[in-house]
Amino acid sequence: MRRIIIRRLVQIIPLIFAVIVMNFVLIHLAPGSLFDVMTSEQQITDPAMLDQLRHTYGVDQPVTVQLAKYIWSVMRLDLGYSYRQNAPVFDVIMQQLPATLILMLAAIGIALLVGVTAGVMASIKVNTIWDNLISLGAVFFFAAPSFWLGIMMTVMFAVKLGWFPVGGMRTIGVDESAIGAVLDVMHHLVLPATALGLFYAATFARVMRASMLEVARLDFVRTARAKGLSGGRVVLAHVMRNAMLPIVTLLGLQLGTMLGGSVVIEAVFSWPGIGSLLFDSVMSRNFPMVLGVLILGSLLVAVCNATVDLLYLRLDPRIKAR
Amino acid sequence: MIALFIDFARRFARNRAALVGLFLVLVVIGVAIAAPWWFPRNPLRIVGRPEIWPFVSPRYPLGTDSLGRDIAAMTAYGARTTLLIGLCASLTATIIGITVGATAAYVGGWVDELLMRLTELFQTIPNLIFVLTIVSILGQKIEYVTIAVGVVTWTPIARLTRAEFMSLRDREFVQACRAMGMGSLRIMFGEILPNALPPVIVLSSLVIAGAVLFESAVAFLGLGDPNVTSWGQLIGDGRTLIRSSWYICAVPGLAIMLTVLALNLVGDGLNDALNPKLRDR
């Protein structure tokens, strides 16, 4: 087991390496050099200062040396310095990361809960009005852009009804106990997590329905019925458990999209995560920050993918046998 | 050939939802083509009082936005941008995907390994973050948005093409071609590809829908081409006014949703018509 885990984690290394190289290529594709942008952003005009910066960033050296230097510094988690926040890029991202993780976890939770429930319902009542309604709902949420859903939900639940706050993560100026703070964050979390999660809920519902119908036809389900198990127990303990496997695969594949989706949702709800940070950095052409988010985002997805693979191993012991 | 097409059309038409989707797609295409005749003047021009609600003024059936621009005109022109970017991005993705997938499967060995690692790489990078990075580095041009969206959506096409090629490359007809002394490129693209194409076409039609969503997100964030009207951009502009005039966001959002919905339905219909074996699943 430990060998499998280590092997899976080692596979991440070349991937991250490739992301770093690609970043480097992107920097060099930029019209004018990154250096020009950085200096103009900080409005540095003193020639002596420029020369010194040129040397610090290694712009006066050949491309291969620059690449090697870049890789070396990224490996030491030195992603550069952001003058905008006046702190190292890595620190700023790490500071914002928890908010994004909370949002993503909540969205995954909602997507799983709503999607799996809807899929199971549709498969139990297959080809009835319920099935059709769920399929229709899935088709709609699959097509609606998440940011638009977010805005429409804000109009409905925050502006008109006033049930939830319009944006942000904490109520400003309220100093509460730990429990109060958690509740406050959760209250702010409902709308953005739902807006982000519903798209994935739609996907999960469709896949879950198909997979439930597929598994329900298998022999072991007939055996379970023949043993005299109740219908509900067969569905929950036997069919659903096996039908969940495709969902886990799908979840792993969609983590990257979800992290991207959270950028837009964070922009809509001014959620203080790396999405807002990225948006702000893109707008102010703060390239070290943009590239830092890209690298750490890819790393996050790679690690999550590995975790999902290992989870799969636990859910389906047949894989380990091979 | 005609008999084949009629057969295809009949199978497509059996799926009611797909027909509805096709109708909607045709409407959107019609609006996109007719926009310059319908609204001959620049859609970004200010025409009247700001924030007129829809269905109030007969001159502006969908109302005006915060600057007093005609929402109907902007939505019609937005259809052009959206469809154009969706189609071109999907085409880019399909070309990259087919090239990578076909080469990986046909050549095999370390090339296959390398190309599949590359595919994995692009699956790992959070795609919207990558699009935003490319657009912010290269510049806010419609071409760059299109290429960026194509670059992040080709991976499923590559995987599918590879799987199809794997199952086809050792068939008798391919061996016959090889025995005849045909070149690799001709076998790959002239002989195997036509047989592998139906499922790939289905997937590319679904990629259009995904590309439309990507484009709208980029434009919504204000990183689209500022000189071109697009639905996402309209939503982004209207966002600040949700307390007073939420319809500015609602109208283009519905347009995006219906277009993506229609494209998805057409994709499903194509799937039924082109891969009849899979239909009953």
TrEMBL record, chain A:
Biological processes annotated in GO: transmembrane transport
Task: From the Swiss-Prot or TrEMBL record, state where the protein is found.
Answer: Cell membrane
Keyword Repressor listed? The answer is no
Pfam families hit by this protein: BPD_transp_1, BPD_transp_1_N
Which PROSITE patterns does the annotation name? Answer: ABC_TM1 (PS50928)
The organism's superkingdom is given as Bacteria
- UniProt GO cellular component terms: plasma membrane
* SUPFAM superfamilies, per database record: MetI-like
Ranges for domain ABC transmembrane type-1:
97-312
Q: Which UniProt keywords apply?
A: Cell membrane, Membrane, Transmembrane, Transmembrane helix, Transport
Bilayer-crossing regions? 12-30, 99-121, 133-159, 179-202, 243-269, 289-313
> What membrane topology term does the record carry?
Multi-pass membrane protein
Q: Which InterPro entries match?
A: BPD_transp_1_N, MetI-like, MetI-like_sf
Similarity comment: Belongs to the binding-protein-dependent transport system permease family.
* Protein name (Swiss-Prot/TrEMBL): ABC transporter permease
